[in-house]
Amino acid sequence: MKKIIFLSMLCLAFISSNAQQKKIWDETDQEKNERLAWWTNDRFGLFIHWGTYSLAGRGEWVKERERITDETYQKYFDNFNPDLYNPVKWAKLAKAAGMKYAVITAKHHEGFTLFDSKYTDYKVTNTPYGKDALKEWVDAFRAEGLKIGFYYSLVDWHHPEYTIDERHPQSAKFVSSRLATPISDEEYRELNKDRDMNIYREYLKNQLTELLTNYGKVDILFFDFSFPGEHGKGKEDWGSIELIKLIRKLQPEIIVNDRHDLIEYAGGWDYTTPEQFKVKQWPTYDGKRVPWETNQTFSGSWGYNRDELTWKDNKMLLVLLIESVSKGGNVLLNVGPTGRGTIDYRAENALLKIGDWMKYNERSIYGCTQAPDEFEAPDNTILTYNPTINRLYIHLLDYPMKNLTIKGMKGKVKYAQFLHDMSEIKITEPYGYIPLSDNKLAEQDINLLLPLNKPNVEIPVIEIILNTEKESSAKIQY
Ligand code: GLC
């Protein structure tokens, strides 16, 4: 018996010392909730992918996909001169769309920095453009009242000390115009013999220090990305623990994503980033709901891609936003400006259309989250809920014919109205023929009597003012 107690104590000691090791930052759940409060409230941001690849017009992975050498790729740097770059216009557009924050590629995988860095020549100030484009961007977005974030690529296809890995332009050779064969282990060794990741790790620290000291308060840092394994890269390669400590020291309020491979470390990351897909439910880690944001393109590319045609339509984008909020998440929607610094007309139109909807319906997005389990969404609707003002929002994806029955809501609704025009929606008894077997259920149900004609709104929203008393200080919690 004694032996068992001793062993289990040893075991517990091991677990707690392990947990100790895996803790990077001391912060309670409550403190984290508060630090992230603006972000969970705001829900909607603009992602911007802009760099030398924008000139190629074939997406930001063009250097890797087409196995382009540094020498050949140099033409995009030499011609980088966005004569129509006007970040004030971008910021106004983001704002018009109802976005509250924005994240821009300070450096993408090609290694080019949109900012003036002491640690590289491969930077915007050395192109014909000659100015710190990031500085101009930060000033413009801040002036419009938007929060600002930097995307920073851990991956670097230009830095001479960055070792060639499986996601590198030099990790495969073309054998014909279309087929690429991976290089052998021997070739990896040969290519990497003079490269030193220690030097690259210093470079990461130096550049992050620049980004987090020279541009004032930075609200978000979006790292990209890890792919651990043989010929891959992860936390050891980046020195992620040191990086995150540095970041927290320089900008204690900053919100950091999860792509630097520190998932199992408490305080190592703030939110998770499901990319280009819709989550089935609110993502969890260790059995707990976590903050999340889906990042998505309008078309199938992040960087400007002239010939990409798979553009999502307005309704699809609105559903994406509403559905994400209904599962407690955010949306970061991407534009890939052109080499001239303009936003493609299709993206601009899409943003303006989202703005048309947001202008009248934003109340069902900001400050909202997943509805409590007691509320069941009627068919073809999505629910969101604002815990602070205790209101429920019903988004009508497929406009019903006059009657919308909501189950189990008898006695719970004080008032119902459309959001877009604040017109009353009458509450009546469940309407129409009710099969005997459903009678019991129907007693608890109510009916919303809708106008026959669908209002002139892509997705009409009904606001339900609930009867139930709630503490007005309630906030979104994880
Ligand atoms: C992926 C891609 C990258 C893009 C990013 C956006 O990680 O590698 O090109 O920037 O997704 O989240």
Please give the domain count: 2
Small-molecule binders: alpha-D-glucopyranose
What is the CATH class designation of the largest domain?
Answer: Alpha Beta
Number of strands: 18
What profile does the largest beta sheet have?
Answer: 7 strands, parallel
Principal-axis shape: elongated
Give the class from helix and strand content and strand pairing. Answer: alpha/beta
CATH-derived architecture of the largest domain: Alpha-Beta Barrel
Fill in the CATH topology of the largest domain: TIM Barrel
CATH superfamily of the largest domain: Glycosidases
The amount of helix comes to 25-40%
Q: Would you tell me the overall average pLDDT? A: 92
- What percentage of the residues does DSSP assign to strands (E)? 15-25%
Which regions have little confidence, pLDDT < 50, spanning 5+ residues?
A: 1-20
- Please, how many helices? 15
Radius of gyration: 26 Å
Beginning-to-end CA distance, first to last residue? 41 Å
Query: How are the strands ordered across the major sheet?
Result: 7-6-3-2-1-11-10
Structure description:
The chain has 478 residues and is an alpha/beta fold. It folds into 2 domains: 8-362, TIM Barrel; 381-470, Golgi alpha-mannosidase II (Immunoglobulin-like), CATH 2.60.40.1180. It has helices at 2-21, 29-35, 37-42, 53-56, 62-65, 70-78, 87-96, 133-143, 185-192, 197-213, 235-238, 240-250, 314-326, 345-361, 439-443; strands at residues 44-48, 101-107, 147-153, 172-174, 180-182, 220-224, 255-256, 284-285, 288-289, 292-297, 329-335, 381-386, 391-396, 403-406, 413-418, 426-428, 446-449, 461-466. Helix 7 packs parallel to helix 8. The protein is elongated and about 80 Å long. It binds alpha-D-glucopyranose. Residues 49, 60-61, 224-225, 275, 295, 302 line the site of alpha-D-glucopyranose.
